[in-house]
Please model this.
Amino acid sequence: MNKITLHDRWIVKAPINDVFRIVTDFEKFPERFPRVAESIQINKREGNCLEMNATVKSFGKRFQVKMKTQILPEKGFISDNDSYQFGTSGHEELLLSEHQEGTLVDYTYQLIIHKKWLGIIALPLLRWYSMKYWKKAVIDQLKKILER
Model:
């Protein structure tokens, strides 16, 4: 089993409430961020806790992910994700805080790769590429939506 922690931070020049509204509207994630989410179906919602099935995109492939997500009001979300099809699981945190220029987005993904052969191939690629792709596919798109 291979583990990796991916982390980065960005500033979005928009109020925290606006950023929060966009990043926690999971039903519209595929529409707003089509490079990472093809579909998201909310199966269960109890207060701020959601269970979802998603079809996500990564490295030119589509795969299924089961997500157990907790929305943190005005702060973002945390999610435990399993992709049995791809052989990974992970803990994701997208945390928001106020910044003098707008909103600081602090993103962490702790990824576990269960398939040994996949870890050998994927770890170097993930370290080099993942956060660059996330910035382009999510953060830059978020800026387009909110920074007018």
Notes: The chain has a mean pLDDT of 90. DSSP finds three helices and seven strands in the chain. The first helix runs from residue 16 to 23. The two ends are 44 Å apart (CA to CA).
